[in-house]
Amino acid sequence: MRLDKYLKISRLVKRRTIAKEIADQGRIEINQKVAKSSANVGTGDLITIHFGNKILTVKVLKLAELVKKDEASDLYEVISESYERDFSQE
Q1: pTM of the model as a whole
Q2: 8 A C-beta contact, residue 55 and residue 81
Q3: What residues does the RNA-binding S4 domain cover (predicted)?
């Protein structure tokens, strides 16, 4: 499954176009390698997403074409969630 589609279906990113933009800016990694929006995602992959100063790492548990909102979090497991400190405002 394409990375941008997986991010949208799993509700990690609200819209597929936003997922594509983030990926094409080099802010998403699959298994510690920068990934484009068209990269394939498989079960067991680690996806790291850089949202501004937030870094989220998830493990892909399963793939699905359609998922209800309540079940979207079953597609992945959060491995880590951290925040980078902004030194520019000190």
Answers
A1: 0.85
A2: yes
A3: 1-64
24 by DSSP, 3-state: which? helix
What CATH class has 3-85? alpha beta
- C-alpha–C-alpha distance, residues 3 and 70, integer Å: 21
C-alpha–C-alpha distance, residues 31 and 20, integer Å: 18
Residue 85 and residue 79: Cα distance in Å, rounded?
20
Residue 50 per-residue DSSP state: E
Following CA atoms 82, 29, 42, 10 in sequence, which dihedral angle do they give, to the nearest 10 degrees?
50
Q: Which two tokens stand for residue 27?
A: 């802010």
Residue 84: per-residue pLDDT: 77
**Pure H helices in the chain:** 3-9, 16-24
